[in-house]
Amino acid sequence: MKYVDEFRDPALARKVLKKLHEVVADIPRAKERPLQIMEVCGGHTHSIFRYGLEGLLPKGIEMVHGPGCPVCVLPMGRVDDCITIAEQPDVIFTTFGDAMRVPGSKKSLQQASAEGCDVRMVYSPMDALAIARENPHKRVVFFGLGFETTMPSTALTVMQAKREGLNNFYLFCNHITIIPTMKAILDEPGMSIDGFLGPGHVSMVIGKQPYNFIASHYNRPLVVAGFEPLDILQSLLMVVEQLRDGRAEVENQYARIVPEQGNLHAMAAVNEVFEVREHFEWRGLGSIAESGVKIRQGFEQFDAERAFSVATLQVEDPKSCQCGEVLKGALKPWDCTAFGEDCTPETPVGALMVSTEGACSAYYSYGKIDVHQAG
Ligand code: SF4
């Protein structure tokens, strides 16, 4: 299959791995402590474990799993808000499937559905719009979440709702932006990340220029990476070559998908419908300035936060949950006492165990970890 088989070729992978080992062996500081490379995107985390790449890497590389799984960084208070909305009379609450099982402080959307709320799984915001057309006497709410990758389709859906004059469609906007979050990670005291694999899907929309400050201000290399095994290995090679040469640049390994300038049409739709929020709360990372968007004036009739007066309270994670430390790369998933015991993909305690892109779920499914020995 074009663009798949050639990126999973074992012979080519062995060649890239050999080169990767050689380059890391040429970096003296990698002998003192492993080079920490953060894959920002949960899709990369999933691929790294699914294809067993971590076990093939030189000992001088340590992968740190970043915050790029939107389900995983959704705070409990926002899940509680979803349930408050879903429990209102005449509401049909629509959501992507992976958000159904994220625990709120009392229940998940899946549990709310079992208790009688009309919660429906959709594959796109346009599905939610179709439900609104078919149910003019119901209030249909779409739970919009995700980074810049999914923002354009939500924006286009709101624009379409306005064109059609629909008055029973609402967006509960929880879209977030990656750049302020990366800056927050880089500003953490004791930050020890040496380089980044940049998120491929987000970059397809925003392009590569927004990352330039990481190289120029923080002196860290970033390589925008694809999701197949060879994409990831080649991107890691590009990062360590920069570290060996003392360079810090933004490079684009995923050029077959990511245009240098991003997708200008998609960004225009996003800017028409959304504006930046002052702050947005992230699970484990706290409140980060300008890291989320809300609906602009002109589209406010579709804003579920106005129509349903949600509380948006900050709710602490359970004491046993160490998602925040895992998200910041300070702990590995198996360091969490709940990992594999109280917290499994069937019974998630924290959000990192819910989505297949979550670090805990990826480790649990593919990591070959004996949880009884790991702690
Ligand atoms: S094991 Fe569960 S509770 Fe612990 S960090 Fe992972 S998702 Fe959070």
TrEMBL record:
Q: Which GO terms describe its molecular function?
A: 4 iron, 4 sulfur cluster binding; carbon monoxide binding; iron ion binding
Superkingdom classification of source: Bacteria
Alphabetically ordered keywords of this record: Iron, Metal-binding
Nuclease: present as a keyword of the record?
Answer: no
Q: Write down the InterPro entries for this protein, in alphabetical order.
A: Hyd_form_HypD (IPR002780), HypD_1 (IPR042243), HypD_2_sf (IPR042244)
Q: Is Iron among this UniProt entry's keywords?
A: yes
One Gene Ontology BP term is: protein maturation
PANTHER family per the UniProt record, alphabetical: HYDROGENASE MATURATION FACTOR HYPD, HYDROGENASE PROTEIN ASSEMBLY PROTEIN HYPD
- Family the entry assigns: Belongs to the HypD family.
- Protein name (database record): Hydrogenase maturation factor
Q: What is the scientific name of the source organism? A: Alteromonas confluentis
